[in-house]
Amino acid sequence: MKITGDMLIGASAVRGTDATLRAFDPARNADLEPAFGGGGAAEVARACELAEAAFDDYRHAPFETRAQFLEAIADNIIALGDTLIERAMAESALPKARLEGERARTVGQLRLFASLVREGRWLCATLDSAQPDRKPLPRSDLRLQKIPLGPVAVFGASNFPLAFSVAGGDSAAAFAAGCPVVVKSHPAHLGTSELVGRAVQKAVADNGLPEGTFSLVVGAGNAIGEALVAHPAIQAVGFTGSRRGGLALVDIAAKRPVPIPVFAEMSSVNPVFALPGALETRGDTLAAAYIDSVTLGVGQFCTNPGLVIGLEDSDLDDFIDNAAAALEKKSAQTMLTAGIAAAYADGVKHRDATAKRIATGESGEAASGALPALYRVSAEDFLAKPQLAEEIFGPTSVIVVCRDEDEMISVARRLEGQLTATLLMEKDDVELARRLLPVLERKVGRILANGFPTGVEVSYAMMHGGPFPATSDSRSTSVGAMAIERFLRPVCYQDLPAALLPAALADDNPLNLWRLRDGELGPN
Ligand code: NAP
């Protein structure tokens, strides 16, 4: 499939005339062909109007059609073959194996949501029978199901050109919920986005869905994203990126005449508590695994372990020495964009002013190369300097040395909201872990034991979210089946005649759903 540089507005390819954009190859430091035509408010309005027009037909399409649509997107992405992988490699400097893995995750995610749609539990179909003889007042017949919110705006992420982008988790969850989607292409992945966009556009047509079910807009600068979030047809926003960008969108959404929810995933340092028993028994292997996790994908993961917290003793000293030695063997690598590389360089420069750098990676040839950097600070310093707890997006981490357990708990209490927290522990550490757990539960979305947070499973029980600033809304996830919840809302039908009831709530359960009927859960 050929990349044309057009936007995809409903069934049409539309050439934007407001600006000319080019994708960039950060490894070769060169522009990529072709040029893209950037659109503006007019194209956003057209995409949003089509999405609004599509909404009722799309949400009422049989669940089987919706599921087949999701599966068709997955099939069409696979059919793009190496064309997609090669373009994503050129636009992101990510290696082939990583992008092939990400493609597998993306299609797996679409297929998971297809099976979720078929299974129907997300409807939360609930029936409370009327009690006409109840005293002192009779009870009405009450039936509840969840319905989709309406058209959703999705902002692709720089660090996952496939899995958090045009047909990534946000889009898959919104489509599964019954929402049309308008994607704002990430400026770093214009070609990858068009290829995947065309795969979605074809799936819309092949499944007989209304054209406004999907659009992809492209623009230069913030204006197009701002117009998208402000458009009255848009009912929710999915975003992954910087804290500044996420908060700007939250602000626009809150100031609309009709405010809407923004699910923005922004920043997290993913603290790792290295407890004494674990360091005593396997500190050396943990040090190597920690540095592998910090430098994986040039540290460009939202789950990168940016903070390790340990108790002062000789095992922690050994762990720090081993981690420093491991990091010194890691070389500089090209980051996703020159902007991200510049932000990383600036971040470590500021960190050098507040913390002791104990190790630096090897410099390499990379054009936008990020040099790994490791820091050590006392808990006292950490508690006094809040900037040490801020995310620097890239291959860097801070080790915090605590005098005693109480100080470790104080550090945990001081943390901002996070996507994850990790406990490296052995049996002897259970009591300390038990003290930390209630603090961490209030701070993070996922608590792991004896692993590292990079690598997020797409499954039913996954939670990839957390209190601010990890996300703008801690009540949901951006990865895994529960993501569908963000794009649904409950509606209760009171005393409606059978002729008006949705199929999910009909007496004879024609969709064969599991329902909560008079307090009993089952296929009833
Ligand atoms: P970004 O600058 O926040 O951009 C993400 C998307 O939002 C882009 O499509 C961008 O497009 C748009 N956008 C940003 N600010 C906007 C605004 N004020 N109004 C409207 N649209 C806006 O993030 P990025 O390019 O992915 O990476 C930059 C930094 O984000 C990184 O250095 C890192 O700190 C952070 N990041 C964090 C995570 C995480 O998961 N925690 C992941 C990726 C990146 P335009 O620029 O074209 O408007």
From TrEMBL:
Belongs to the aldehyde dehydrogenase family. Gene3D superfamilies: Aldehyde Dehydrogenase, Chain A, domain 1, Aldehyde Dehydrogenase, Chain A, domain 2. It catalyses: 2,5-dioxopentanoate + NAD(+) + H2O = 2-oxoglutarate + NADH + 2 H(+); 2,5-dioxopentanoate + NADP(+) + H2O = 2-oxoglutarate + NADPH + 2 H(+). InterPro entries: Ald_DH/histidinol_DH (IPR016161), Ald_DH_C (IPR016163), Ald_DH_N (IPR016162), Aldehyde_DH_dom (IPR015590), Aldehyde_DH_Superfamily (IPR050740), ALDH_KGSADH (IPR044151). GO terms for molecular function: 2,5-dioxovalerate dehydrogenase (NADP+) activity. The keyword Isomerase does not apply. This is 2,5-dioxovalerate dehydrogenase. Residues 20-459 form the Aldehyde dehydrogenase domain. Keywords: Oxidoreductase. Pfam families: Aldedh (PF00171). Its EC number is 1.2.1.26. It comes from the Bacteria. The keyword Iron does not apply. Signal peptide: none annotated. It is an enzyme of class 1 (oxidoreductase). CDD domains: ALDH_KGSADH.
